[in-house]
C-alpha cells in the first residue's frame, strides 16, 4: 500500500508531464497522461485494499477479504476518515459471524467515523440492533432499528427489519 501523499505526488507529476507533452505538440500523450492522473486521485479517496476486500465479501470469501484488510498497516494514518469507517465496517461484518463483542465495537466505530452510503450505514445499524437484541437491550435495539428503517430508502432491508421486530416481540 502506498502512502496517501505519494498518490497525490504521482497525480501531480502526471499532470505536469501531460502539460509538458501538450506544449511539445504531443496531444495524444498529454491527454492520456491527464486521464491516467485520475487513477491516483481515485485511489487516494478509495483505498485499493478496501475495494478488493469488498469484492471478496461479495463472493462470500471472508478469508480472502480478511487477507486484503490485513495488508493495511496502521489504518489511522494510512486511510482518510471515510476509509477508516469502511475499514471498521468490513471488520464488523466479518466478525459478526463469530465474535459479537468485537463486531459491535467495529460497527460503532464505523458509524462514528462515517460511511458515505446510507445503505451501508443502515446495515451497520441493523447489525448493531441485532447485537443489542442478543444482549437483551430492547430499547437500544428499537432505536437502532428505527434509524436503519429511515436510512433504508430502497427497502432492501425491510424483510430483515420486520424479522428483527418479530424477535423483539418474543423477548
Explained architecture:
The chain is mainly α and 171 residues long. Helices cover 79% and strands 0% of the residues. The protein is built from eleven helices and no strands. The chain has helices at 4-23, 27-36, 38-45, 48-58, 62-70, 75-78, 81-95, 100-113, 118-134, 138-151, 158-170.
Radius of gyration, in Å, reads 21 Å
Termini distance? 47 Å
The largest sheet, given as strand count, sense and whether it forms a barrel, is: none
What is the average per-residue confidence, as pLDDT, rounded to a whole number? 88
Give the uncertain stretches in residue-range form.
none
Helix % is over 70%
| Form type | elongated
Query: Roughly what fraction of the amino acids lie in strands?
Result: under 5%
Which secondary-structure class do the elements indicate?
mainly alpha
Order of helices and strands: HHHHHHHHHHH
Total strands: the figure is 0
Oligomeric nature of the chains: single chain
Number of helices: 11
Amino acid at each position: 500500500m502506498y502512502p496517501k501523499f505519494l498518490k497525490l505526488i504521482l497525480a501531480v507529476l502526471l499532470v505536469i508531464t501531460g502539460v509538458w507533452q501538450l506544449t511539445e505538440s504531443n496531444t495524444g500523450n498529454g491527454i492520456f497522461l491527464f486521464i491516467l492522473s485520475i487513477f491516483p486521485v481515485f485511489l487516494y479517496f478509495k483505498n485499493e485494499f478496501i475495494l478488493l476486500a469488498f469484492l471478496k465479501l461479495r463472493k462470500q470469501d471472508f478469508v480472502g477479504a480478511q487477507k486484503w484488510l490485513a495488508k493495511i498497516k496502521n489504518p489511522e494514518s494510512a486511510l482518510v476518515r471515510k476509509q477508516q469507517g469502511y475499514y471498521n465496517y468490513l471488520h464488523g461484518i466479518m466478525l459478526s459471524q463469530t465474535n459479537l463483542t468485537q463486531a459491535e465495537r467495529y460497527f460503532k466505530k464505523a458509524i462514528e467515523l462515517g460511511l458515505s452510503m446510507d445503505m451501508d450505514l443502515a446495515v451497520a445499524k441493523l447489525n448493531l440492533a441485532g447485537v443489542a437484541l442478543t444482549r437483551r437491550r430492547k430499547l437500544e435495539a428499537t432505536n437502532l432499528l428505527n434509524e436503519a428503517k429511515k436510512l433504508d430508502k430502497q427497502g432492501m432491508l425491510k424483510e430483515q427489519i420486520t424479522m428483527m421486530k418479530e424477535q423483539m416481540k418474543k423477548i
